[in-house]
Amino acid sequence: MDIRYASSPSEVKHLDTGELRKRFLVQNVFEPGKINLTYTHHDRIVVGGAAPAGKTLTLGSYDPLRTKYFCENREIAVMNVGGPGTIVADGVTYELGNKTALYIGRGTKDITFSGQDAKFYIFSATSHHDHPTTLVTPEEANVLNLGDQENSNKRTVRQMIHAGGVKSSQVVMGFTALEPGSMWNTMPAHTHDRRTECYLYTDVPDGARVFHMMGRPDETRHLIMANDEIVISPSWSVHSGVGTQAYTFVWTMAGENQDYTDMDVLQPADLL
Prior knowledge:
The longest helix has 8 residues, at 17-24. By secondary structure, the chain is mainly beta. It has helices at 9-12, 17-24; strands spanning 2-4, 25-26, 34-40, 45-51, 56-58, 74-80, 85-89, 92-96, 101-104, 111-114, 120-126, 134-136, 142-146, 155-161, 172-178, 184-185, 189-191, 195-202, 210-216, 219-225, 229-233, 240-243, 248-255, 264-266. It is globular and about 55 Å long. 46% of the residues are buried.
């Protein structure tokens, strides 16, 4: 488990490209036959991926967590961004197609992942309440149609694990798919001081890249990201991206609340 310590705005504005990538970019998320996880001290989130590649992978505990099993004090949101896969949680089998999500509640002891071409994106936060493990398909999501072609941000948002849907203590999960010809996500940009957000950029075509914007609104920075890479966005940072082609991103959050509208919106003219 990789460990990332929290970073302040005053630090980040002085970092070069290499240090920015070291602190906020998570690569090699889906390494065949492995579970790769990163622990960030921003809201004590664990993020990463499992790529079974024909094996059965078991999610155990990790020394930094100091627990007997992974979900002793945690909940997990998982989304499959690959081929069909299976998660078994305390003896119950869940089949996940592409863009299907599974919420795994606190107290779940035994968790395994399998599937030849499955790619399970994993997002975990601390939990102080037991919620039932629940599967949610893209068809069951709450759908929002946002943006327009004129502004290159026509997109469909699907809310999967959220206050009005599958219940959790604090994790929120969904995904946004951009229409062909649209490249901007989350523009106008925003911050939300009460939550940390992570993006998994996926369905990025070969050779394409996403320019992810981060930093304080008056001290913006950027990370250039490839397919199936994760960015950690602290609560004080903007988080917006533009791709060289259309793509999908899985958005996940944890913090003080689950209010999707709790954000401070910034118009393009507000950014420096």
